[in-house]
Design brief:
By secondary structure, the chain is an alpha/beta fold. It contains 16 helices and 13 strands. A seven-stranded mixed β-sheet has the order 1-7-6-5-4-2-3, with helices on both faces. It has a four-stranded antiparallel β-sheet with strand order 10-11-13-12, with helices on one face. Strands 8-9 form a two-stranded antiparallel ribbon. The structure holds pyridoxal-5'-phosphate (PLP).
């Protein structure tokens, strides 16, 4: 079926000026990260860092780390990055790792390594990992891809992983325990000392997901000495993931997965020796690996340095302090848990927090909505220094407006009830049609999604949520 405006392959090349104008036009509705109006996805710490990283990226734009012997520069920079990160994260000389394309790839690799380790060392054929309910979905993705079972343990009321409950799930198939530093949803550091001690007691691997905290917590520790350890300094921690493209301020496509020693890292590698194209060895998931991302990561760490990162953390903390001060006057909002760094999870008290999110979105703020519990997610960076006062003003107004929207909310609830009721009485085929309608109604690309979140929460019980999200993703990916 042909769709209006769907791109066809260009017959002739376009001139550069027109092409770049078109690209500029495409970007006009993108999130304004430069102005600090996004609270997710882009970590920006000013033009000086950005330009330096960009220049380094550009210098290695075409180089490919697939064959490190062809580009000794990439090999050297990659080795430097891994060594610098190991040093930062409490590793001794034995700690080593790989540079990957991002947190998800680092986590996929840590889980795949645990699977291979379990099979070789313990003969485990049906491996299981134990994670807290707040763990990043990349662990579930890893289990799905590599055929492991993820045993999910609920977090406590403080949103922290519960070591004893995790321990109770250990069986003869367990290969790995996971803790987060911090977890993404509420920004709290799991009790890593306890989780790692249990892993050690049972001779299991223990992974710390420091994807978002790996380049924040070590610098925060210089300011707040009572911050708990989270890294290789803790006995029992066997691997760590940390994203340089988050608070490391590198270009997208840079994370490290580090292992206690090279023996463990070997379980991650892939080798195929029978290929007519030659012997093929690959450290992680990607074959071709962009030289630019490696150079960008190397440049960011060296350009900013320990003192620079500590200053960036300090600036981010001052943004957080402003938000916390403002919340003292907004009784309808509360912070969930006791966040350890720069992530705040806001819930509503007598106000629909999704409506607050919608009001902020209408004013041009990009904030993610979360569920279980319903909340808004703020990832703070130094860039928010310039926007936080305006944000706080809008936040006050958004809460006021959201309260006035009680009527709307009631009608949303009625819609949810109708959906729930329909799922019980309609035959599957008709309900599918209705889901399509609901996906449309949820306003892809639009600003308001409170109704959709409400609906999702209730549809979960009907067991059709996965299907609906798949439809939704399909629709997003085929948007013209
Ligand atoms: C704690 C945590 N783990 C893993 C990831 C996944 O990282 P990426 O999006 O780079 O794959 C994230 C991303 O926000 C995260 O916060």
């Amino acid at each position: 079926m042909s769709k209006k405006n769907k791109a066809t392959f260009p017959q002739k090349g376009m001139d550069k000026t027109t092409l770049l104008e078109e690209l500029k036009g495409l970007k006009k509705d993108d999130a304004d990260w430069r102005g600090g109006r996004n609270f997710a996805y882009v970590y920006f710490a000013g033009d000086e860092i950005l330009d330096t990283v960009k220049e380094a990226y550009g210098m290695c734009f075409s180089e490919n780390a697939l064959n490190p012997t062809a580009f000794p520069s990439l090999r050297k920079m990659e080795a430097d990055v891994i060594a610098m990160c190991a040093n930062l994260l409490g590793g001794d000389d034995a700690v080593t790792g790989s540079l990957t394309s991002g947190g998800t790839e680092s986590i996929l690799m840590a889980v795949k390594t645990a699977r291979a380790w379990g099979k070789k060392i313990k003969g485990i054929e049906h491996p299981e990992i134990i994670v807290a309910s707040t763990v990043h979905p990349a662990f579930h993705k890893a289990c799905y891809y590599f055929g492991l079972k993820a045993v999910v343990v609920p977090v406590g009321e403080d949103f922290l992983a519960q070591p004893e409950a995790m321990k109770a799930e250990i069986n003869e198939n367990t290969v790995l325990l996971v803790a987060s530093a911090p977890s993404y949803p509420q920004g709290v550091i799991d009790p890593i000392v306890e989780v790692a001690a249990i892993a050690k007691e049972y001779d299991l691997l223990c992974h710390v997901d420091a994807c978002v905290g790996g380049f924040f917590l070590p610098f925060l520790k210089k300011i707040k000495s009572d911050l708990p350890d989270f890294d290789f300094k803790i006995d029992g921690v066997t691997s760590i993931s940390a994203d340089i493209h988050k608070y490391g301020y590198a270009a997208k496509g840079a994370s490290v997965v580090l292992y206690k020693n090279a023996t463990l890292r070997k379980f991650q590698f892939y080798v195929y020796t029978e290929w007519s194209g030659g012997i093929y060895g690959s450290p992680a998931i990607s074959g071709t690996r962009p030289g630019g991302a490696i150079a960008g990561a190397w440049a960011a760490l060296k350009f900013i340095g320990m003192e620079g990162y500590v200053q960036l953390v300090q600036r981010t903390l001052s943004v957080r302090a402003k938000v916390e001060e403002a919340l003292e006057d907004i009784s309808e909002l509360k912070i969930f848990g006791k966040p350890d760094m720069s992530i705040l999870c806001l819930g509503g008290v007598g106000v629909d927090i999704y409506e607050v999110g919608d009001e902020l979105a209408v004013k041009g703020w990009l904030i993610d909505r979360q569920q279980n519990p319903a909340s808004l997610h703020l990832t703070l960076t130094p860039t928010h220094e310039k926007s936080i006062d305006a944000f706080i003003l809008d936040l006050h107004q958004a809460v006021k407006k959201a309260k006035q929207l009680t009527l709307n909310k009631l009608s949303n609830q009625l819609q949810v009830k109708t959906v729930k009721g329909l799922s019980k009485v309609l035959p599957d085929s008709m309900f599918e049609k209705f889901q399509k309608f609901a996906a449309k109604y949820s306003d892809v690309g639009g600003k308001r999604s409170a109704a959709m979140y409400g609906m999702m929460g209730d549809l979960q019980a009907a067991g059709n949520l996965d299907e609906m999200i798949l439809d939704f993703l399909d629709k997003l990916m085929s948007e013209e």
